[in-house]
Design goal:
Elements (H helix, E strand, L loop, with lengths): L17 E6 L5 H12 L9 E6 L11 H9 L3 E7 L3 H9 L3 E3 L6 E2 L4 E2 L17 E4 L2 E3 L7 E4 L8 E4 L3 E4 L8 E4 L3 E7 L2 E4 L9 E6 L3 E4 L2 E4 L13 E8 L2 E8 L4
Parallel strand pairs: 1-2, 1-5, 2-3, 3-4, 6-17, 9-11, 10-12, 11-13, 12-14, 13-15, 14-16
Antiparallel strand pairs: 7-8, 15-18, 16-17, 18-19
Length: 264
């Protein structure tokens, strides 16, 4: 009698993948590599194997991007290409041969916007208005509305390498965010302790989001993908003092402003 296989060796569960989306606007691998170097060259070590979906939806239908070269260019910045979206049949076959998943345009995982330098001319698109009921954006994505959960609260210190993502709501941190740690929220971020790591508010594109902290020592802050890095020696009067960060319009671009926060 044949032995019945033991199905307890593995369990398959539904999961949501937070992935960065690399939207290709050129199929020239050298241009893509140069653009990545320009955007991310001053952020060594910021990413650590972060998953990336290569999005071909804005390329011409007959475009044939050099996926191995693009994968390698992403890898040089510690980004891991895991899937290709909206690719032509030939590119999809090449992606499968490289071990990447192939996604239709409507089935991409939830994307965390790539940071954009504050000097970049692009303006991140604002997030859609929150719906009163949960909205399924795709088969693998569920948006958590503020009606369900207004705020996520973290009351333990975050060590280097740890990451917290408050999806669809604000994030409140009651303990220190260490250098090398990362806090992300679709809404506002409040840190009632030293903020020494990275804080990314408005991660789904909300340009009205803000970052608040009682002790500003951040390595990087970002709102709706527009980021600013800091060397503590250059932070001047804001170093280790209460501060808040917001996005302001300046002529044809948006700039992050860090200002003192009155606490008395």
């Amino acid at each position: 009698m044949a032995r019945k296989p033991d199905t307890s060796a593995i369990e398959l569960k539904s999961a949501t993948l937070e992935a960065m989306r690399a939207v290709l606007r050129s199929d020239e691998s050298s241009a893509i590599a140069a653009a990545l170097d320009a955007r991310l060259g001053n952020m060594p070590g910021f990413f650590s194997g972060e998953p990336v979906v290569i999005d071909c939806s804005e390329l011409p239908a007959d475009a044939r991007p050099d996926l191995p070269a693009i994968r390698d260019a992403l890898g040089r910045h510690a980004l891991t290409a895991v899937a290709v979206q909206a690719a032509c049949d030939e590119a999809a076959d090449e992606a499968r041969a490289l071990g990447m998943a192939v996604l239709a345009a409507e089935s991409a995982p939830r994307a965390v916007p790539a940071p954009t330098p504050e000097s970049a001319p692009e303006t991140p698109a604002p997030a859609p208005a929150p719906a009163p009921e949960p909205v399924a954006a795709s088969a693998r994505e569920a948006v958590v509305t503020q009606a369900q959960r207004r705020t996520e609260i973290i009351d333990k210190p975050l060590r280097s390498g740890q990451r917290i993502y408050a999806r669809g709501c604000d994030l409140v941190v009651l303990a220190m965010v260490s250098a090398g740690a990362e806090v992300i929220a679709d809404g506002n971020i409040h840190v009632y302790a030293p903020l020494r790591g990275r804080a990314l508010a408005g991660a789904s594109g909300d340009t009205q989001a803000r970052i608040f902290t009682t002790c500003f020592e951040a390595e990087l802050v970002s709102i709706a993908g527009v980021y600013r890095t800091f060397e503590h020696t250059a932070s001047g009067e804001l170093l280790r003092r209460p501060a808040h960060v917001r996005l302001e319009d300046h002529s044809d671009k948006q700039v992050l402003t860090v200002a003192a926060l009155a606490t008395t």
